[in-house]
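User: Quick sanity check before I run a bigger batch. Here is a single chain. Can you write out its predicted 3D structure?
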Amino acid sequence: MGFKCGIVGLPNVGKSTLFNALTQTAAAEAANYPFCTIEPNVGEVAVPDDRLDKLAQIASSKEIIPTRLTFVDIAGLVRGASRGEGLGNKFLSHIREVDAVAYVLRCFEDSDITHVENRIDPLADADVVETELMLADLESLEKRATPVEKKAKSGDKEAKAQFSVMEKALVLLRDGKPARLAKLTPEEVPAYRALQLLTAKPVVYVCNVEESAAANGNAYSKKVEERAKAEGAAHVVISAKIESEFAGLAAEERAEFLKDMGLEEPGLNRLIRAGYGLLDLVTYFTVGPKEARAWTITRGMKAPQAAGVIHTDFEKGFIRAETIAYPDYVTLRGETGAKDAGKMRLEGKDYVVQDGDVMHFRFAN
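Assistant: Done. Predicted structure follows.
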C-alpha cells in the first residue's frame, strides 16, 4: 500500500512530460521494481527509501520490495471539461479513486509552447482546473442528494446523517469553494470520503519551472507557494525538462548531473515526500532473509490495523507485534543484536506504529 496521485492540469503545462519523466526515472533507478503501465495513463513507481536498502543489507534479504506510488495522468483539462469539452470529462472519473491530486502549473515562459489561454498565470490556471472539478462535483452531488433528501425528510436516520454530510459539501460548491474546506466532525469523515468528491482530495501544487529555476523556484512559483501555504496544501518546484533529461541518463551519470543542476535529488523524491507529508503517511518495515519490505500506513494507525495492511487475517487474529525501532535495528546490526540488547518490544493492540518501526506480527489462524 502506497498512495495514488492524480496529475491534472491545462494542456501544454508539461503535465504529460512530467508524468513520463517521473515514471521513467523510477524504472531506471530501481530496475527490480520497474514502472508498469496498467493503462496508457496509469503508472506505478517504487517509493525510494534508503532505510529499506540498509535493512535488507543487514538482514541479507534476497528481495527488496518497496512500497509503491500510483500516478494517474488525467487528460488536459480545459474550460468546460465538466460539460464534456475536450477530453477532460472522459477522465474526471479517474480522479475519484486517488488519494491526492497534483495540480501541474506552468511557471515558465517559452514562446515556442503556446498556452491554451495565451497567458502565463499559474494561479489562474489552478482556478480553471479547480472550477471544472467543482462543477463536476456539484453536478454529481446534486443528482445523488435529491433522493437522499427525500428519505431524510421521511424520518430515515441513516439518510439524515448522509444528507447532512452532503449538505456541507453542497453549500461550499454552490459558493464556488472546493469540498476539502468542509468542517467535519471525526464521525463525519468516513461518510464524507465515501462521496468521492474530486475537490475533497488533498492538493499538491507542482510548479513546472525552467531549468535555471529548478533549485530555488521563480516569481511564478513563489506565488503558488504563498497560495499553498494559505490553503494548507503542499507544493513542489520541478523542472519537467530536467526530469526528462535525468530519466535518460545512465545511473553513473545521474549524481553529477543533479550536482550540475544544483539539485540534491530528482523531482520524483520531492513529490513523493510532499505527498506523504500532505496525507500524513508513515512507513514501517518487515525484514527477514527472504525479503525486506516497506509498508505505508496513515500516521496514528494502531498495530492490528497496520498488520491488516499486509493481510486481513493478520488484523483479525492479531496477538502482538514484535517491534524494533529502525535506529536500534541498524545500530545493533539486526534482530538478534536488538533482542540481546533488550531493544525488541512486544506491543499489543493499542500500540501506535511509529515511522521506521521494524515489525513482526504474531496472529492466531
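Confidence is low (pLDDT under 50) at residues 26-38.

User: Great, the batch can go ahead then.
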